[in-house]
Amino acid sequence: EVQLVESGGGLVQPGGSLRLSCAASGFTFDDYAMSWVRQAPGKGLEWVSSTNWNGGSTYYAESMKGRFTISRDNAKNTLYLQMSSLKSEDTAVYYCAKRMGPGLYGMDYWGKGTLVTVSS
Fold this sequence. Notes:
Blueprint: E1 3-7, E2 10-12, E3 18-25, E4 34-39, E5 45-51, E6 58-60, E7 68-73, E8 78-83, E9 92-99, E10 107-110, E11 114-118
Parallel strand pairs: 2-11
Antiparallel strand pairs: 1-3, 3-8, 4-5, 4-9, 5-6, 7-8, 9-10, 9-11
């Protein structure tokens, strides 16, 4: 059974940093690209970032470029999202998602999410 468990969310002040983690199990982690998506209060899902199977290629939504860094540790079956220079508009539930192949295929599994609140 595929399981994706996010952690690391919390309350942070504007300009602060957080690192999210996603522990993956139930599939061969390094066979698949992974992504982060988020959902702000009252809004739809927004793609944040993706990485290919080995972390050699990374992709970001325009508003996250230069502030967020996606990475993965295939030995630990874990995906990360380092977030810095956080803004109030980054407040959202952040989900990790498994892609259906080593590259940017569609997403087929999501975790339950971790809440990030950016507020003073």
